[in-house]
Amino acid sequence: MKRLLPFRDYSEHDVVNIFALDTANTYLSDTGDGDAGVIVKVSNGAITNDAAQYVASSYLGKTDYPNVGRNGYPEVPLKVGVAGSGEAALGITLFETAMYDENGEKLLYYRQKALENQAVLSGQAVPVLKRGTVTLSSAAFESSIPAPSTALSVRSGGKFGEAESGDSVYGMVLATGERIAGATADYFAGAAGATGTYAIVSIDF
What CA–CA distances, in Å, run from 71 to 21, 55, 59, 76? Predict the structure, then answer.
């Protein structure tokens, strides 16, 4: 189940577009640290003279032929990583970071599909939202979704949880509801006939 649902309301002025996620989901169909809706922290803020750097990567495939990937794989040097409990967080990812589509085809060669699925490649800058209103599935929370008006803080795995005394507060639950899958599997609710819970959340990092 993906963490970030389609409804969201925010200003582009509250989106940071200079960091790449330091991990990635292998496939678009996976769920993990590369998901959209993951709370992230700055893991490498060392600015270099170049906006991109080239590194050796098996993602390019066989590169020992003349002029095939000899410069390496381009990636953004500034990085964010998955935030944990008690850590200073930057915001939540708006796009998924993934390497292959559900058929095992490299998104490197299928940029249109990555765009259609709101995904970026490993090493590409991922938009990080600092402030706004988003809709999150239960997968974005450490345990069950808290009740409306509950203050939220960061928990392990880049997830939200109910804020406790002394926690930094990064958001509040505005409303909660249920999403029911029909006769076929639902991308967010789960298997056919399953019921998934979700919440509209105001975030402010």
Answer: 21, 8, 13, 15
Give the three-class secondary structure for 35: coil
Backbone φ, ψ for residue 189 (5° rounding): -80, -30
DSSP code, position 167: P
Integer angstrom CA distances of residue 116 from 2, 81, 107, 120, 135: 16, 24, 11, 10, 19
**Paired tokens of 60:** 């390019």
DSSP label at residue 89:
-
Contact 35, 2 (CB under 8 A): yes
Q: Give DSSP secondary structure letters for 56-88.
A: --GGG----STTSSTT-EEE-SSEEEE--TTS-
What global pTM score does this model have? Answer: 0.90
Q: For residue range 1-39, list pLDDT tens digits in order.
A: 789 999 999 999 999 999 999 999 999 989 999 999 999
